Amino acid sequence: MRILHTGDWHIGRKMNGLDLIEDQSYILEQLMHEIENSDIDLVVVAGDIFDRANPSRQALKLANDTLYRINITLGKPLLVISGNHDSRERLNYGSEWFKATDFHINTSLDQAHIPVTIGDTDFYLLPHIEVLEARNYFKDEDIVSHQHAYDKILEKIYGQLDQEKTNILVGHLYLSDSVASDSERPLSMGLSEAVSEETFSAFDYALFGHLHHPFAVDSEKSFYSGSLLKYSFSEHKQPKGCRIIDTDKEKVSFIPLEPRHDVVVYTGDYEEVANGNVSFKDNNAYFKFELSNMSYVTEPMSKIKMLYPNTLELKPLIEDRSKELQTVDMATTSDEEIYQSFIETTLDRAVTAFDKTMFKSYFAGEHNETD
Amino acid sequence: MRILHTGDWHIGRKMNGLDLIEDQSYILEQLMHEIENSDIDLVVVAGDIFDRANPSRQALKLANDTLYRINITLGKPLLVISGNHDSRERLNYGSEWFKATDFHINTSLDQAHIPVTIGDTDFYLLPHIEVLEARNYFKDEDIVSHQHAYDKILEKIYGQLDQEKTNILVGHLYLSDSVASDSERPLSMGLSEAVSEETFSAFDYALFGHLHHPFAVDSEKSFYSGSLLKYSFSEHKQPKGCRIIDTDKEKVSFIPLEPRHDVVVYTGDYEEVANGNVSFKDNNAYFKFELSNMSYVTEPMSKIKMLYPNTLELKPLIEDRSKELQTVDMATTSDEEIYQSFIETTLDRAVTAFDKTMFKSYFAGEHNETD
């Protein structure tokens, strides 16, 4: 079986206020082309079809048209779960009718242990869940982390797994060995959202959504599809596309898809950029410039936009802080460093002694509710 | 064929700020009982399933569950059009899949002339339309009223009507011979929305939504289903339910459905009501009281609610205006009188000479844009 694995479409997403719907329509067209021409048996969308719980009519139409083309026009079975951005009720609308053409949407924990069988393969569709929800569902107050919650859910699934079949999990979660980008990093500094990859070891494959980097996890069995597009400037170096899993040949390949606009971050000198001395592959890309020597320029954005009309962000580059402003590697950075970087880059001020006390008190475990 | 004709569900409606979703769930249960037990072949919902273009998740769920039960659980073909309250794009979501089980939604003028054939009957599903839309669709600037628009649409349908079959139109519009209530009276004082009943004379039956009174039109072939519930106090005397059309026996009957709460308007004396001297069928009904001798009472609403907890409106009855405050019969009342009544009852002030000048200038044709 040849499975096309995609996810994190985030239809209706905006980037720095810019509506990306045209870009999304364009990239979904590329995806459709892939589905049509790569001898695909089935399509998996691993959550976050929509960017918002209540998508606009335009977003709803694009999703409907896309799902229609995959499932009805091209006749491919289609497996979908809800991500943290989707509204379960809204995504679930009409789903009972969709089943007739092997379009299966699961938004409920209740259905996660009931496999959808396509050919020789059992698919377990596990929507994005919250800890509290699992706690209520299992009536178990001991569930305090995502790891606990998933252990409990999988215990139920593993109890009935048909080993004669190929078993595939579809999920939307944060694997602990993976690296997040700004778009999906949880606000909580702790890692209680993380679930270890081993949790899913009984499956032949585990196909995930949530993290936007398609290589966020390094594994032969677990994969993130990655998002359809670069949805924040922190994703500017990430490849974007879809994955094809050939279960018979045990071959997995990532297929890059060409977007309508690339997302580019450039750090350098204002004059160099404004004078057109820097060459870019596409001047119509969505740019973020961090430029030095800009403080005495009036209306620098207007000038930059004359050359690069789709510039979305322009920031002065403050030399001595330039290093700190680079992308933070979440895997190798401590919580305290991330907190510090958050204050400096987002709040745009220096870290105070008070901040450090607060961090220690709240995030580093010195705070005790029962004191 | 036995057709159950319903419409104007307005799921998600509020009345004086009160969420009616529980009442709607209750009455839809009664409707379901009727569908299940009255040997129905097919269900028609003539528009305004939802009250708002962007329904809440709760409203969406109730609609989904109801449509599912009719179409899948009870296995009845289901014909739905969009009303002026529905969002076409949202209502249309998933509709391609629904067709497989004879659940047909039409939200587009484009599809109105293509009949849905069920047994020996052709159904023409005509969504609510606006004049401007018809003008664009037909590329005809001469279309300036609903009457023009519908003439044009029906010209197209009549050109291909199969006279061997029973032909039924489903529409959502304002028949000129009918009487509107506050809930659906257009804000425009003119009657450019009105369409004559004769327009639909070539059909065996025409099943409408829009007006909330199930007897808003007096005809043997054209019917309004009426709304599911009394959705404003002006509807307090209207029967509510659904209609069954037996096309073989040429028999049409209206089936009243019992709501969870009735809607009651009572005009009288404050003391009589507060002392419990007035007897009502159900003290838990949704009440509107217009009471005299209330001006010196502190917190009259609290006192009234001790007896009638679901009182939604309490107004002082000003004796000498009491007659004017009665329900206005739209059919026999002039536009000027309606305008006057609007100022008095809604704006709660007397009509001034300036108001009268304004009315003459804007509504009575004395105003000329080209002056």
UniProtKB/TrEMBL annotation, chains A, B:
Originating species: Jeotgalicoccus halotolerans
Hydrolase keyword on record: yes
General function of this protein: SbcCD cleaves DNA hairpin structures. These structures can inhibit DNA replication and are intermediates in certain DNA recombination reactions. The complex acts as a 3'->5' double strand exonuclease that can open hairpins. It also has a 5' single-strand endonuclease activity.
Gene Ontology MF term list: 3'-5' exonuclease activity; endonuclease activity
Similarity remark: Belongs to the SbcD family.
Subunit and partners: Heterodimer of SbcC and SbcD.
Organism ancestry: Bacteria, Bacillati, Bacillota, Bacilli, Bacillales
Residues forming coiled coils: none
Lineage top rank: taxon: Bacteria
Annotated TM spans: none
Record's keyword terms, sorted: DNA recombination, DNA replication, Endonuclease, Exonuclease, Hydrolase, Nuclease
Protein name per Swiss-Prot or TrEMBL: Nuclease SbcCD subunit D
